[in-house]
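Below is a typical protein record.
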Amino acid sequence: MAAASDLVFDPWDPAFVADPYPAYAELRARGRVIRHDPTDQWLVPHHADVSALLRDRRLGRTYRHRFTHEEFGRTPPPPEHEPFHVLNDHGMLDLEPPDHTRIRRLVSRAFTPRTVERLGPYVRDLAHELVGALVAAGGGDLLADVAEPLPVAVIAEMLGIPEADRPLLRPWSAAICGMYELNPSEETAARAVRASVEFSDYLTELIAARREEPGEDLISGLIAAHDEDDRLTGQEMVSTAVLLLNAGHEATVNATVNGWWALFRNPAQLAALRADHSLVPTAVEELMRYDTPLQLFERWVLDDIEIGGTTIPRGAEIAMLFGSANHDPDVFEDPGTLDLARRDNPHISFSAGIHYCIGAPLARMELAASMTALLERAPTLAPAAEPERTPNFVIRGLRGLSVEVV
């Protein structure tokens, strides 16, 4: 068993957050599992282990289906955090079978490939409209002008959220997602609790309105979805809608700006993409791998497991390092090089196993649509300033990306 010094894995150090990939290489060299005392976690940096553990039912996103907090050796969350945990703990992402199986089955009936396919023209038209406005202005903030409004509008359109209410979504989402960082502060928790209450109240009213007057939207579909005697409860419906909204745009926003910043720093690859737009599908996958928007995913150890000769006891928490796994040289040839034509690319940016991202097809569609629109309508797009990274480690992104059409 190896241990990670603060100098190697320090998710609160701006230098580490700016470029964690050299530290990942050192972690992989240290072993298959590394104890990290500051976060009370076991770090798993290798692709093979991360991929296998994502499918291992001895691990879980929650332990509450089998143990109380006390039985699991964990302290219950403070009562003042309850609104966040009620909202978070009833969504698919933080449930295990049988509840996860039931909810995912019902959601899948409303969130079908056909639903996503029908959105194709809307997504492409909106991408061209947003990029057209950026070009007309001679540039702007790629995050605020294209990367953010596209997926927010798409998932809001799917769920049937009125256009006038959509500016509320990203601030609520950002506040809630702050709790997914490592050791969040009380200030972060307070913001997440407020957002959880406001978001839940808003969706409860919207769901009640859709019960009275169903539409063609996903919320109406979730209300109608049933299997024998199974239906989504009111809380499950609210939590599912929040999860779809948060997951439906947070990763896509960050993948877009991370990806374009990577392209600007690799001009030969950008030139190849501009010369051959047929590279867009593989480019999307490679950019998701190269600078992963979700760097870490956690699991609880429900039964003792062994990794590389080290026993990890029940009650421990494992941190699977997606960013490190996506740069593992045992799987990816020359992983530190951006290769938009890379064909053998089993990245795990969308997770794996029963928690594989249900919105992955939609995310790929959105990323391809915005990239194509920018290639076609802004072929001379260039960075106007060095971007500033957000201070977050788990959800990796930029505060903005200033661009100009030269």
Remarks:
- The longest helix spans residues 234-264.
- The chain has a mean pLDDT of 93.
- The chain is about 50% helix and 10% strand.
